[in-house]
Design goal:
alpha+beta; 34% helix; 4-stranded antiparallel sheet
Chain lengths: 111, 111
């Protein structure tokens, strides 16, 4: 089976199907450190990456932004002095799509 | 009186005095769009700046990070596709110091 980190995002529109509970349970063991959180009624994938200070936080933030631009799928990022929290979800379906699990895996690789 | 945006941050340690209510009331009219929020029992200065997309969000984030490094005072930043929220407070005193009002004014100038 293809690793999530080497899969490619598919175009996602408002009619795309959200990930099922079975799919979520299948993907999560491939994503150490990631958690499904529920925020404003929307399921999201979140991980806080500890860094060695602001310069490192910013270089990681820029690397994830570059990954986001290349995939045309963009996370929320919370930049702190010694940590960056990356949060993926699919705005168009207000929930989690396979794309988000792919991007989470790629984010961990970038880190 | 010196404009906040042209003032310089002073070194701030755990014994520095937090801004008084009177000082907050004095500074806030100089900071359009900024709000004092209370989060985890800590007063913070927050503003959400709307942007024209992720590239613009990232360029603003990098500009604020550069300002932060030059002042050795670092905000939390929440990067979204079409907005960046910048949140200033002084970790060492777990609250607001004059430095935070200065940095908020400089942030608005950068934007």
């Amino acid at each position: 089976m293809q690793a999530l980190s080497s899969a490619r995002c598919e175009a996602c529109d408002a009619h795309a199907k959200p990930a099922t509970a079975q799919e979520v349970n299948h993907y999560m063991p491939q994503l150490p450190g990631w958690q499904v959180i529920r925020h404003d009624g929307i399921d999201k994938l979140s991980q806080t990456f500890k860094t060695q200070g602001y310069t490192r936080s910013m270089s990681f933030t820029n690397a994830v932004a570059k990954l986001a631009e290349s995939s045309d799928h963009h996370p929320q990022m919370i930049v702190d002095y010694g940590a960056v929290t990356v949060i993926w979800w699919s705005h168009k379906i207000a929930g989690l799509h396979k794309n988000d699990f792919i991007m989470a895996a790629k984010t961990s690789e970038v880190f």
